[in-house]
């Protein structure tokens, strides 16, 4: 007997994608990723910039708190007379030894040099020249906002002050700079600086007892090749970048005359053998031309335009690239060997050329003004001499306390 045959057909279901379908899915994912990854990058860049701006606002708040407490803004240490007058005002009972110590720490002599003539410990400290870069425009922020001692006579070296005698030093002179180190535990700071972003080289016990060469001190001079180590640390908003700097309105255009010429107020450091520098920023408001042109001097030319915040201060910080600017002077080299160069807030550049006759217009010999017309919107790529990453226009992403938001380049939009 024949049995009916069961159907040999049964439902079959695919267990995966075909190769074509898989390729389509991969293509779609890649397209989405291509759109998303740049967007994420932009978002992360914005977040980092906002975080840096928030910290800059904290520093600005610290400066304003300092003003409320003392009735004066901190000096930027470019001129001793203003520094001295400031501390006599806010600490009327300050001991003379405190002022002498501060001067010796900021003169042109190495702190432990007692063989030069005159030696560091000459009875008259001011017989040695003041160095406007000894406490530079970045270090002054930490010095001024980190807190002073409550001792009215010894605000610098008293308990909780910025300086402390190196332990086990036998009877040091109170104004001898070689016997002091930075004090990381200061009293009542206006700003609580993150310790890991201060340029401090701490005492190393493996090298023996504390000494002039092995103490708590700054290490930014070694990092940036800008001089001898001192006790004044600086502060960065972002690891690996240039430090935040401060300029006092009283000395925006101050200068000292050196062997290389007039050295105008600014900050500079070496990066990979190139100069990274910054100066106070001018507004877009020009002053009247000189009554008897030309200007005749760089200082006179510096009054051709009005600075931003002419009665208070400027705080500036590099952006995410960690760089300030490749132009501190006309030739882009050392920032003190030719006429100083400055940015205006709209991205133009002026140069302090004594032969100029008015603030506006091209520089001589093609014109009679102070403007380097090759620079527009902070774009320095048209300048003939290659300098520090010029193609990236590092000034564009800098931050400032007087910008409402974002960077200098954002402010142009």
Structural class: alpha+beta
Overall shape: it is globular
Radius of gyration: 29 Å
Kindly state the number of beta strands.
15
Number of domains: 2
Order of helices and strands: HHHHEEEEHEEEEEEHEEEEEH
Mean pLDDT: 89
Helix content: 10-25%
> How widely separated are the two ends?
94 Å
Strand order of the largest sheet: 5-12-15
Unreliable stretches = 1-12
Concise description?
The protein is α+β, with helices and mostly antiparallel strands.
Set down the secondary structure blueprint:
Blueprint: H1 19-70, H2 80-90, H3 96-105, H4 139-145, E1 163-165, E2 180-182, E3 200-201, E4 217-218, H5 220-224, E5 245-248, E6 255-258, E7 261-264, E8 267-271, E9 274-278, E10 282-286, H6 298-301, E11 305-307, E12 313-317, E13 341-343, E14 349-351, E15 399-400, H7 408-412
Antiparallel strand pairs: 1-2, 3-4, 5-12, 6-7, 8-9, 10-11, 12-15, 13-14
């Amino acid at each position: 007997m024949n049995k009916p045959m069961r159907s040999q057909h049964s439902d079959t279901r695919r267990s995966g994608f075909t190769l074509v379908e898989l390729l389509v899915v991969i293509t779609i994912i890649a397209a989405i990723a291509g759109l998303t990854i740049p967007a994420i990058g932009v978002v992360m860049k914005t977040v980092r910039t906002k975080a840096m701006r928030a910290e800059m606002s904290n520093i600005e708040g610290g400066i304003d708190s300092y003003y409320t407490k003392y009735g004066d803004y901190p000096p930027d240490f470019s001129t001793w007379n203003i520094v001295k007058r400031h501390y006599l005002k806010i600490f009327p009972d300050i001991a003379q030894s405190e002022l002498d110590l501060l001067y010796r720490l900021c003169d042109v002599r190495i702190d432990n040099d007692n063989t030069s003539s005159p030696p560091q410990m000459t009875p008259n400290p001011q017989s040695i020249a003041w160095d406007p870069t000894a406490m530079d425009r970045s270090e002054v922020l930490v010095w001024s906002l980190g807190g002073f001692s409550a001792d009215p006579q010894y605000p610098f070296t008293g308990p909780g002050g910025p300086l402390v005698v190196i332990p086990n030093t036998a009877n040091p002179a109170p104004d001898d700079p070689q016997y002091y180190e930075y004090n990381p535990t200061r009293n009542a700071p206006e700003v609580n600086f993150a310790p890991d972003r201060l340029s401090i080289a701490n005492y190393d016990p493996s090298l023996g007892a504390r000494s002039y060469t092995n103490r708590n001190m700054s290490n930014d001079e070694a990092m940036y090749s800008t001089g001898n180590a001192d006790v004044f640390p600086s502060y960065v908003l972002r690891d690996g970048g240039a430090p935040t700097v401060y300029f006092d309105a009283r000395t925006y255009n101050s200068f000292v005359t050196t062997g290389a010429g007039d050295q105008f107020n600014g900050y500079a450091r070496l990066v990979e053998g190139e100069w990274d520098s910054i100066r106070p920023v001018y507004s877009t408001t020009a002053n009247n031309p000189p009554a008897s042109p030309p200007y005749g001097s760089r200082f006179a030319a510096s009054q051709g335009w009005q600075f931003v915040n002419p009665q208070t201060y400027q705080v500036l910080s590099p952006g995410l690239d960690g760089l300030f600017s490749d132009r501190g002077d006309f030739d882009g080299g050392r920032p003190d060997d030719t006429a100083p160069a400055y940015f205006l807030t709209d991205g133009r550049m002026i140069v302090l050329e004594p032969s100029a006759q008015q603030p506006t217009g091209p520089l001589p010999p093609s014109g009679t003004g102070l403007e380097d017309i090759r620079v527009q919107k902070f774009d320095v790529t048209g300048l003939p001499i290659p300098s520090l990453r010029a193609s990236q226009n590092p000034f564009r992403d800098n931050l400032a306390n007087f910008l409402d938001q974002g960077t200098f380049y954002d402010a142009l939009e």
